C-alpha cells in the first residue's frame, strides 16, 4: 500500500516591530487512504478528460504487488500494454473522456494524497511535453517514460512529498516502491500542491476575495503634510448620565458660530412643543427620535470647530450604562477628554459612587490611552455658583484622577453652566474663581505627534450610502499613515478592496487625510454589506495580523471577584467587542516597581496587575502596543461593568490569509 505524507513548513511573515510568540509552525498530515475518494476530472491540452479512480480492492492489490517484486514487474508490463491501448483509443475517439486503468504515475495505484501533486498528461497530445519522468522499480526492471503536466495552483508554502519512510530529494520524488521521478534537463518542474488550513500557531486561511490586479498608492515622497496636523485635537465628552454633556456641547458650538441659527430655532420650537424646552441645545447633537424621546444620548455625536489656536473635533459620548460600548467607540477616537460632572445636590455623589458612570468613564478613558483631561463642573447655576460646592467636588475628584494616571492641574477644573452658556467661551464674573474658561482650558491641551508616515491604519466608525450615489461612505479616524484620492485600500477582516474616490475632512473635500483626522472616505468597488463599524482600513500588503490569541499586561479594577484561568468576558478593542476568555495567567507583578511577584498565580485579585494570555472567539486586526499604541489597548467587561484594561504585549496566535 502506497502511503503519501505531506509536510508543510510555514515561514511566518513579519507582523511588525512588536514581539510575537510562536508564529511559525509545521504540521504533518497523512492523507493517504483517510479521505473518501472523489472523482477528479482534469482537462489536458489535447482536449481529452482523464478520470482517476481508486477502490478498496485495488488498494489491497497494491499491497500484494509491493510485497512481491515479480508481481511488480508484471504490473509494469501490464501498465505499458494498457498505456499503448489507451493511446490508440484516444487517437480514435478525440474529445471523448476515457477511464485510465493504469499508466505512468496516475494509475489505479495512485493514492488520494498524492493525486493533487501531479496530474497525468495526455500521452497522445501533440503539444510539447511539460515534464518527462523516468520510472524504474528495480535495477533489473525496464524503464517507462511518461509525459505529464501539472495543473495545481502555486502557493507561497513550500511542500515536500514523501512515500513511506523515504524522503524527497531536491531533484525529484520517490514512490512507495522505490522508483524515483526525476525531471529531465530543461523541463518545467511540477508546481507545489496547495495545502489546507494549518492548525499550528499561525493558521492559513484562504482569501475569500481576490486582490485587484492593479493597486494604486500615493508615494510618501510626493506627500506634503498640511499645517493643521500640528493643531488638531479630537475631544470626547464623557460623564454620568444626565450630567448635561450634550447641552454643554451644543451651547459651546453655538457660541463658536458652528450651529446654523435656523437649526437652533427649530430645536427650540420642537422641544418647547413637548414641554422639554431645556433640551434645545442637546437636540443639536441628539438628532435621533429615540434620543429625543428618552432624553439620553445613544450614539456618538460629532461636530467640529476651530478656536484661535486649535482645531477641535468634539465627540459627544453617551453616559447611560446601557450604551457603554458606544462610549468606548467615542473614547477610542479621542486624543483628550472633557469630563462633565453635575454639581447639583446629590447628583455628583450618585455619579461618583461605585455604581455611577463617572468612575467607569474615567477608567475607560485612561485605559484607552487618553492622558489629557479637562473637567467641567456643570450646572453651577443650580447651586448658585457656590465656591464650597466647587471645592467639595474638587477635593473628591482630584485624588481619584491622580490615582488613575491623570495629571490634572487646578486650572483644568472649570465651573460652568451649559444651559445658560456661562464660562464656556466668555468669562463669567466670579469673585472666587480666576481660572480659565472652558475654551481657554481646551486651547491649553497639547497636540499629540502624528505618525502620518507609518502604514495606514484607519478605524471605521460608520458605514452608509448617500442617495443617488453608488459609492460607499466610510466615516473613520486615521490612526496612523495617510490616505489619498485614488488609493487602493482594503478593509479587514473581510479583505474587501476598494478605490478611494473622495476624502472629506470637516465636511470639506480634500486630497488626503492624515493621522489624527476624523474623515469620511468615499469608496468605489466595495460591498457595503461586508464592512462595518470596527473594521480596519489599510493599504494592501501592509495588513496587520488577524489575532486569535494575545498576551496582555492588564490592571484589574474593582472587580466583584478575582480573574481566574477560564474567566469569560467581553473584550473591547476600538469599536469591536468579542467574547473572550483567559487562557492562562502568566504572572502577577508589583504595581509600583513592575517586578514579578508570582509566577503562574491561580488568580488576579482586584486592584492587581498581571500578565495574561487571552483567547478570542473571533479573530481581530490587532497590533502590539509597541507598534501602534492606539491599536494595542484592550478593555475587559463582565456583567455590564469594566473589570480590567491593559495593553497588548504580544500576538501569540494569528491567522495568515493566503
Automatic annotation (TrEMBL):
Stretches with biased composition (Polar residues): 95-104
Please state which protein family the record places this protein in: Belongs to the TRAFAC class translation factor GTPase superfamily. Classic translation factor GTPase family. EF-Tu/EF-1A subfamily.
Q: Where in the cell is it found?
A: Cytoplasm
List the Gene Ontology MF annotations in alphabetical order: GTP binding; GTPase activity; translation elongation factor activity
**Chain segments carrying region Disordered:** 1-210
CDD domains the record matches: EF1_alpha, HBS1_C_III
* Annotated source species: Salpingoeca rosetta (strain ATCC 50818 / BSB-021)
Domain Tr-type G, residue spans: 230-450
How is this protein named in the record?
Answer: Elongation factor-1alpha
Q: Per the record, where are the segments of Basic residues compositional bias?
A: 32-48
Q: Which reaction does it catalyse?
A: GTP + H2O = GDP + phosphate + H(+)
* Matching PANTHER family: TRANSLATION FACTOR
Q: Where is the composition biased (Low complexity)?
A: 58-94, 134-176
Amino acid at each position: 500500500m502506497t502511503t503519501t505524507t505531506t509536510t508543510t513548513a510555514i515561514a511566518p511573515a513579519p507582523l511588525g516591530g512588536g514581539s510575537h510568540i510562536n508564529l511559525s509552525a509545521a504540521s504533518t498530515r497523512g492523507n493517504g487512504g483517510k479521505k473518501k475518494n472523489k472523482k477528479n476530472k482534469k482537462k489536458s491540452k489535447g482536449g481529452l478528460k482523464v478520470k482517476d479512480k481508486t477502490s478498496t480492492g485495488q488498494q489491497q492489490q497494491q499491497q500484494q504487488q509491493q510485497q512481491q517484486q515479480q508481481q511488480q514487474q508484471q504490473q509494469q508490463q501490464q501498465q505499458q500494454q494498457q498505456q499503448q491501448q489507451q493511446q490508440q483509443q484516444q487517437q480514435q475517439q478525440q474529445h471523448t473522456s476515457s477511464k485510465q486503468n493504469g499508466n505512468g504515475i496516475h494509475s489505479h495505484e495512485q493514492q488520494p494524497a498524492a493525486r493533487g501533486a501531479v496530474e497525468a498528461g495526455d500521452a497522445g497530445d501533440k503539444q510539447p511535453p511539460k515534464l518527462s519522468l523516468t520510472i524504474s522499480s528495480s535495477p533489473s526492471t525496464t524503464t517507462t517514460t511518461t509525459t505529464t503536466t501539472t495543473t495545481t495552483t502555486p502557493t507561497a508554502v513550500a511542500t515536500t512529498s514523501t512515500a513511506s519512510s523515504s524522503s524527497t530529494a531536491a531533484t525529484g520524488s520517490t514512490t512507495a516502491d522505490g522508483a524515483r521521478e526525476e525531471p529531465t534537463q530543461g523541463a518545467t518542474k511540477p508546481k507545489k500542491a496547495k495545502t489546507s488550513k494549518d492548525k499550528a500557531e499561525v493558521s492559513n486561511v484562504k482569501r475569500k476575495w481576490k486582490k485587484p490586479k492593479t493597486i494604486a498608492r500615493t508615494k510618501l515622497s510626493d506627500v506634503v503634510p498640511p499645517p493643521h496636523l500640528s493643531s488638531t485635537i479630537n475631544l470626547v465628552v464623557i460623564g454620568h448620565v444626565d450630567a448635561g454633556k450634550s447641552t454643554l456641547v451644543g451651547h459651546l458650538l453655538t457660541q463658536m458660530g458652528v450651529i446654523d441659527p435656523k437649526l437652533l430655532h427649530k430645536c427650540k420650537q420642537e422641544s418647547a412643543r413637548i414641554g422639554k424646552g431645556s433640551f434645545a441645545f442637546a437636540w443639536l447633537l441628539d438628532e435621533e427620535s429615540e434620543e429625543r424621546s428618552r432624553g439620553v444620548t445613544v450614539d456618538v455625536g460629532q461636530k467640529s470647530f476651530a478656536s484661535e489656536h486649535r482645531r477641535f473635533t468634539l465627540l459627544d459620548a453617551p453616559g447611560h450604562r446601557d450604551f457603554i460600548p458606544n462610549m468606548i467607540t467615542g473614547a477610542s477616537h479621542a486624543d483628550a477628554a472633557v469630563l462633565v460632572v453635575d454639581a447639583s445636590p446629590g447628583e455628583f455623589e450618585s455619579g461618583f459612587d461605585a455604581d455611577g458612570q463617572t468612575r467607569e468613564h474615567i477608567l475607560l478613558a485612561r485605559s484607552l490611552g487618553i492622558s489629557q483631561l479637562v473637567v467641567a463642573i456643570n450646572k453651577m447655576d443650580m447651586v448658585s455658583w457656590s465656591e464650597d460646592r466647587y471645592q467639595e467636588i474638587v477635593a473628591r475628584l482630584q485624588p481619584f484622577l491622580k490615582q488613575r494616571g491623570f495629571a490634572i492641574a487646578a486650572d483644568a477644573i472649570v465651573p460652568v453652566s451649559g444651559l445658560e452658556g456661562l464660562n464656556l467661551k466668555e468669562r463669567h464674573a466670579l469673585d472666587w474663581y480666576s481660572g480659565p474658561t472652558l475654551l481657554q482650558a481646551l486651547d491649553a491641551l497639547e497636540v499629540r505627534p502624528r505618525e502620518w508616515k507609518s502604514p495606514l491604519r484607519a478605524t471605521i466608525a460608520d458605514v452608509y450610502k448617500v442617495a443617488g450615489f453608488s459609492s460607499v461612505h466610510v466615516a473613520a479616524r486615521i490612526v496612523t499613515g495617510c490616505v489619498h484620492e485614488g488609493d487602493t485600500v482594503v478593509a479587514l477582516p473581510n479583505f474587501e478592496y476598494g478605490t478611494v474616490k473622495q476624502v472629506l475632512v470637516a465636511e470639506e473635500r480634500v486630497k488626503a487625510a492624515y493621522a489624527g483626522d476624523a474623515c469620511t472616505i468615499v469608496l468605489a468597488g466595495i460591498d457595503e454589506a461586508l464592512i462595518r463599524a470596527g473594521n480596519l482600513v489599510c493599504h494592501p500588503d501592509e495588513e496587520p495580523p488577524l489575532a486569535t490569541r494575545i498576551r496582555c499586561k492588564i490592571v484589574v479594577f474593582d472587580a466583584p471577584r478575582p480573574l481566574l484561568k477560564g474567566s469569560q468576558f467581553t473584550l473591547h478593542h476600538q469599536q469591536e467587542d468579542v467574547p473572550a476568555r483567559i487562557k492562562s495567567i502568566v504572572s502577577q507583578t508589583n504595581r509600583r516597581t513592575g517586578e514579578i511577584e508570582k509566577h503562574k498565580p491561580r488568580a488576579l485579585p482586584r486592584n492587581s496587575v498581571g500578565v495574561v494570555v487571552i483567547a478570542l472567539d473571533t479573530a481581530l486586526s490587532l497590533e502590539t502596543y509597541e507598534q501602534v499604541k492606539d491599536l494595542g489597548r484592550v478593555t475587559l467587561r463582565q456583567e455590564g461593568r469594566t473589570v480590567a484594561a491593559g495593553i497588548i504585549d504580544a500576538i501569540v496566535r494569528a491567522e495568515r490569509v493566503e
